[in-house]
């Protein structure tokens, strides 16, 4: 049985329909080693950007809902959490992320990462040298009262 957590999942199907309140929705079925689970996306003005972003992560080309079947086979990481609904606890796909992407909206390219890593190392090395110099200054201080 699936518990809350992060799982590698494969899209195995998608279908469009209507919610109980008559609103358009999409259901995407994910297959994991722990079992299958559905994610539901909605198309209200507030929800649509998030739904389309998640569908893009699942492999939907060009926001073209007609091509939803092209998502089948796409692997993603899903984050599953407990949700209370109608007084019952159930599992819900809360997030859909690219594999290994951790959900970065703006990932660094390799050149940017190299520059960022260089800057951080330079700062860390400078801080280490300052700390060593301060420590040595304290050890060399002859004004110790004891």
- Shape assignment: elongated
Instruction: Briefly note the CATH topology name of the largest domain.
Output: OB fold (Dihydrolipoamide Acetyltransferase, E2P)
Radius of gyration: 25 Å
Spans of at least 5 consecutive residues whose pLDDT stays below 50 are: none
Class inferred from helices and paired strands: alpha+beta
Question: Describe it for me?
Answer:
The chain is α+β, with helices and mostly antiparallel strands. It has two domains: 5-97, OB fold (Dihydrolipoamide Acetyltransferase, E2P) (Beta Barrel), CATH 2.40.50; 108-146. It is 28% helix and 36% strand. It is built from two helices and five strands, in the order βββαββα. The chain has helices spanning 48-57, 110-140, and strands at 5-18, 24-32, 35-42, 75-85, 88-97. It has a five-stranded antiparallel beta sheet, covered by helices on one side. The longest helix has 31 residues, at 110-140. It is elongated. The N and C termini lie far apart (66 Å). The mean pLDDT is 88.
Descriptors for this entry?
146 residues; alpha+beta; five-stranded antiparallel beta sheet; OB fold (Dihydrolipoamide Acetyltransferase, E2P); elongated
Q: What is the fold's blueprint, element by element?
A:
Blueprint: E1 5-18, E2 24-32, E3 35-42, H1 48-57, E4 75-85, E5 88-97, H2 110-140
Antiparallel strand pairs: 1-2, 1-4, 2-3, 4-5
Short description:
This protein is an alpha+beta fold. It has helices at residues 48-57, 110-140, and strands at 5-18, 24-32, 35-42, 75-85, 88-97. It folds into two domains: 5-97, OB fold (Dihydrolipoamide Acetyltransferase, E2P) (Beta Barrel); 108-146.
């Amino acid at each position: 049985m699936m518990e809350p957590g992060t799982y590698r999942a494969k899209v195995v199907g998608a279908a469009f329909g209507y919610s109980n309140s008559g609103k358009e929705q999409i259901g995407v079925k994910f297959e994991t080693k722990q079992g299958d689970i559905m994610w539901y996306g909605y198309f209200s003005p507030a929800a649509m950007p998030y739904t389309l972003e998640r569908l893009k992560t699942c492999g939907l080309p060009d926001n073209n809902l007609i091509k939803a079947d092209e998502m089948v086979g796409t692997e993603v990481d899903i984050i599953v959490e407990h949700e209370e609904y109608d007084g019952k606890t159930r599992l819900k796909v809360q997030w859909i992320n690219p594999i290994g992407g951790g959900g970065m909206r703006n990932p660094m390219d390799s050149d940017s990462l190299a520059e960022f890593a260089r800057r951080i190392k330079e700062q860390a090395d400078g801080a280490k040298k300052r700390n060593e110099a301060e420590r040595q200054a304290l050890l060399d201080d002859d004004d110790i009262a004891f």
